Amino acid sequence: MMLGLELAYWQESILRSLGVLAAVLLPAGTFVYVFLFKMVSFMQNRLGPMEAGPYGSMQLLAEVGKALQKEDVVPDAADRTLFKMAPYIVVATVLLTYVVVPFGPDMVFIDNQFFGTGIFYVMAVSSISVIGIILAGWASASKYSLLGALRAAGQLIAYELPLVLSVIGVVIQAGTLDLQRIVVAQATGEIFGWGAIGNPFILTQFIGLLIFMIAMQAELAQTPFDMPVAESEVVGGYHVEYTGLRFLLFFIGEFATAGAFAAIAATLFLGGWWLPGLDLEANYMNVLGPIILLAKMMVFGGIIFFIRFTYPRLREDQLQRFAWKFLIPLALVNITATGILKVVF
Amino acid sequence: MVAQNIFFYVIAAVMAFSAIRVVTVKNVVHAAMYLVLVLAGVAAQYVLLASEFLAATQVLIYIGAIVVLVLFGVMLTRAKLGEDVNLTNDYWYVGAFTGVILFVLLATSLLDHFGDEPLDQANASTQISGNTEQVADALFAPYLVPFQAVSVLLLAALVGAIALARKD
Hints:
The structure holds two protein chains of two kinds. By secondary structure, chain A is mainly α. Chain A has one domain. Chain A contains twelve helices and no strands. In chain A, helix 3 (about 80-100) runs antiparallel to helix 5 (about 130-140) and helix 5 (about 130-140) runs antiparallel to helix 6. The relative contact order of chain A is 0.15. Helix content of chain B is about 75%, strand content about 0%. Chain B has seven helices and no strands. Chain B has helices at about 1-25, 30-50, 50-75, 90-115, 120-125, 130-140, 145-165. Chain B starts with a helix and ends with a helix.
């Protein structure tokens, strides 16, 4: 049942598949245009793309068209099958991540009475993309790619731990792994008996949010943590040998993953598709919910890309030490404190 | 029920094929990829059994961590592109023998315990939000002491591995 329409199972399934595609591509495109094309241009005192469409808004379509008509080059020494497969693994991972993100009371891709693992599932599938990256680096038969892939693997493994641990505080507070029920817990929560704005977990889990944002930046290999794709050392890392469509897939994968993590951060810490004063179960939330969630995603996307274009790159040993000696202990302390406070209150 | 049976056999066939390819393929990285297929097949079987928490754990631990570590190790030591003829060593029949023994052991114990009894379908379909809560309740109430003991054991193994690997 969606918006009062009665749909057969197969119709719902088609709608859901299209919904996942839209959920992956729309935020990714918006992120690229608003932040990569425009925000960075204004930060660097230039205009950015202006020719294609009003204010260059069609530039993205031009870029896609350009990438599609380029030759699909596979290096001679490369492992052809794995080389061609790698970008699809990365993109498939993002598609899988969006499956459990709720966009409204009925705007869900999978019913939570059948699949209640929610955020744990997100952490599990988002760890698969490393395999695609390692394969891309190895199958390219280029030492720059291999070095980039090794750096990527080391970094993604190191920062996956704080990412998972930072979420546990939210899970303890909400008492569930399911993202839909985490949204409801934030909407119906109260701050010392005052429930006008619910209880968005950014207020109580700000340490968790901080760790999540830092680990997310590293998982996305965005700038303070962009050793794997450092263009001045390994000329682009694991995707240096890719052209045309397959490069485009890596590019989409990068920005769609940014969108996915922003959506999850918005759901976990900012109350997801709900805003104070709105009816949690009303039918109009199925239309309003996705817009609210997208707006919250834009907040997190803005932070991600603002940091990306502001800070210099960390050294390899610095970023490893930062993860293991600072972020993980801090996350453990946060979990312990949350557990104690949950029992006390 | 029929759909589940069909998918069980399809996934099982893919798993068996990939498992054979893991040990016969002539390239270490390709073998690792077939290993991913086997492990993903296990996760898919867990989903068919309505144990999605176990499935997510399987993906997180085995595909997301162990295969990645295997690939990482292979690439740090040697990872030739193309075929590597010396991958199968002389002791393959010992491995095959162990595999057969393990299969017989697991099969007889499963048949001995369950026989022709069908799986508890009623239980699987009525439970709300899968079995994540049930796993948590079991781990933190009746099995709390064994769970903690295993955790401490794993921690000790971890510390021991680091102590052995460090020379200074």
